Amino acid sequence: MAQRRTAWTRLTTPFATIPASTATTLALAMWVVVIGGWALLSYG
Fold it and tell me: What is the CA radius of gyration of the chain?
């Protein structure tokens, strides 16, 4: 019996493979946003 996919799974599953360079770039960009937000909120 097939399991029903959750909304989270449907939203976060890519339709095609994501190149490693793109995934790495997006991961680094997210870390910059997280660290930048933390620094802004912590130090004004």
Answer: 16
Q: SS3 sequence, the chain?
A: CCCCCCHHHHHHCCCCCCCHHHHHHHHHHHHHHHHHHHHHHHHC
Q: b/e for 10-37, b at 16 or more Cβ within 10 A?
A: eeeeeeeeeeeeeeeeeeeeeeeeeeee
pLDDT 10s digit of each residue in the chain, 44 long? 668 889 988 888 888 898 999 999 999 999 999 999 999 999 98
| Tokens coding 43 | 């130090």
